[in-house]
Design goal:
Blueprint lengths: L20 H39 L1 E6 L3 H16 L4 E6 L2 H12 L12 E7 L6 H11 L3 E4 L2 H43 L1 H9 L4 H32 L21 H32 L1
Helix pairs in contact: 1-5, 1-7, 1-8, 2-4, 5-7, 5-8, 7-8
Organism: Pontivivens insulae
Subcellular location: Cell membrane
Main location: membrane
Length: 297
């Protein structure tokens, strides 16, 4: 006779012996995978911020480069600046100073650079509106008034960098997917090993009327709880290390800090819950299959 256990008989988890290396292995695996998951999430969020930063900084900026003979350099620079300032869609246009040009070239040529010894072009930087300027009209004016001036909207630079940022995000998503699969596989193996090691307990429970769903719940709850605890500890450790990391990228032009900000921390808080859910589903599927196979034999 198959009689289901009543609630008064206690929770199912109490019928499983608490000892066993598999339970500790699940905790350790969840801990390690949570650390990796938090790092992957932080890297993915950083790539997203990097993509947004590059998009905002480059999409609304452009430059005009004037590389003219010395005798016409000032004249063409003034004409190009006037054309830029009077073009609809341009908020601000100015010529880079000699000090700013030296600062841009310093990483490659050093700080003791004499610009008058090199054919360094004059550069006009522009800030644009959201709709952007009339690029065709601006190019036509430059061709007529400053033939040695070249307008650059940074498209050739923006597209590769945006592609790199998007690939970084895809790598982060892929890493999270692999981590989830590893957790599911490890918990499944641990659950099957625990069921095999406690075969006599399972047979005894069946003899006294326990249903397979009750027996499976005992293992499911134990492994899901172990995974939740291990993932919580790993998430706290990884989150603390990331939070205490030096903020070296705040003043960098094209760098993204790894540390999440604001509501982004909620994604890290979801790691233990997801790990527990994955362990719960994996253990339930593994236990149901093993118990069904055992009942047929």
């Amino acid at each position: 006779m198959n009689i289901p256990f009543r609630k008064a008989d206690g929770p199912p988890i109490q019928v499983v012996p608490p000892s066993g290396a598999t339970a500790h292995l699940v905790t350790a695996t969840a801990f390690a995978m949570a650390v990796l998951a938090v790092v992957a999430i932080a890297a993915t969020l950083a790539a997203h911020r990097l993509s947004a930063r590059w998009s905002s900084e480059l999409a609304r900026s452009s430059t005009i480069t004037i590389l003219a003979p010395p005798e016409t350099m000032q004249q063409q620079t003034a004409a190009a600046l006037q054309a830029a300032q009077t073009t609809p869609g341009v908020l601000l246009a100015r010529v880079l100073s000699e000090q700013e040009q030296q600062g841009l070239l310093a990483p490659w040529l050093g700080t003791d650079l004499a610009l008058d010894l090199l054919p360094v072009p004059n550069v006009i930087v522009m800030e644009e509106t959201l709709d952007g300027p009339d690029t065709m009209g601006l190019r036509l004016r430059l061709a007529g008034e400053a033939p040695d001036a070249l307008y650059d909207d940074h498209t050739r630079w923006r597209r590769p960098m945006m592609a790199v940022a998007e690939r970084l995000r895809l790598v982060g998503y892929g890493a999270l997917g692999l981590i989830t699969l590893c957790v599911a596989a490890m918990v499944t193996l641990a659950a099957r090993a625990a069921l095999s090691a406690n075969r006599q307990v399972v047979e005894t429970l069946r003899l006294i009327g326990a249903r397979d769903s009750y027996i499976a719940s005992a293992f499911v709850q134990r492994f899901a709880w172990r995974a939740l605890v291990g993932a919580a500890m790993g998430s706290v450790l990884a989150g603390a290390l990331i939070a205490l990391s030096p903020d070296v990228a705040r003043d960098a032009a094209f760098a993204a800090q790894l540390r999440p900000s604001g509501l982004e921390w909620l994604w890290i808080g979801l790691v233990p819950l997801i790990a527990g859910a994955v362990a719960y589903i994996s253990t339930r599927i593994a236990a149901a299959r093993m118990l069904a196979n055992a009942a047929e034999t």
